[in-house]
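Side project, low priority. Logging it here so it doesn't get lost.
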Amino acid sequence: MVVQAMWRRRPAWQLRTLRASLKLEPILISSSAIRVVLAVSLFALLPVLGLAEDSAPPPEPSARPLRLRHIVLKPEESRFLLLPLTNYVNTAFDTAQVSGSFSQDDYWHNHELVLDRIADPFNSIDEDGGWGHFFRQEFASAAILPNLTLHLLGNGYDFRALAEWYDEHRVPFPYFWAFLSSYAGYLGNEAIEISNPEIDASDHIADLYIFNLVGNLLFMSDTVTDIVHNQWQLRNWPGQPVFDMHDKKILNASNNYVLRPRLWSEHVRPFLYFGLHYFAGASLALDNDTGVSVGVGLATTDPFADDLLAKIQPSGGIFWDDHDRLLTSVIFNGTDESIVRVNLYPDLFPFRTLDLGLIGTLDLGFFFGIPQQGVPTFGIAIEKLVAIGVS
């Protein structure tokens, strides 16, 4: 499994106890409780699948042939090694990076609240204000931007990568498992979002029943996947989730997508970056198929503020990649009103190829952030070992 070690100093008044952070509320015996058990069981299955990858030898040529055309998956890249688990964490805790608006407290209990809302979508929509309110909020407001870019395009792309990962590991019915893995992550994402009382049932219903579903169905098509991946050059440059031992929270988790179509030349391409940051800029080709991308735009800081200027702040980033593998990212004025956030990814370091015997290669990534208020944070990502953290 992915190992995350974290060092973070906090003022004493910010300390939360382990009991408060990990408290599990009672779950009533109901139909929604059964679905919670299924969701938790799925999450428990993902690390097992990840460990199975580390322990199992590569498939023999005589093993069953691949069922899918592999377009997205590149097994040699570090971000694909434990894809079901890392995609779950980055997806579920993506919006947690806006900690002023969303809380990780009562994470598992909030799953039940989300499931209760979506169990009877028509009744929930009526209670929220009816179909007029539903369409205005989800299709005729600023919400349409993340609905299309994240829930439809980004989620669909990740769904296809998950299906190819399961197929690469000869798991039967790869689309079925990819569907469950994808929805497990987004159910966790909705559980984070429901911590804010401004989020109503219409948000969950539009995300899970419409945009996520359409995205998954679209990317079952080889033609759609080929166009998006090879012509549009869509990629997911995810965060490196770090477990904060001090506050018992996940930090630095994110799904970030880039579009770099070859419109101008092989050396200069337009660059679009979206997630909870929206940047536009240019990507410049360097020697040995490496590249530098620079973008400026906006970062989400408080999506529920009354003043538009309080919802966002000017932001920008610099990214270095090698054959589309993200090596380094530096984001200025990002979410959580950070001054700078730096990620150094495992593919950057030459010791990633060092064979350590039983544990294989040593994959290390590093994270460093400076907030406008508080103290700096530092994290180390170590794959294939037991997670240990200090604060």
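Brief comment: Residues 2-383 form one domain.
Revisit when time allows.
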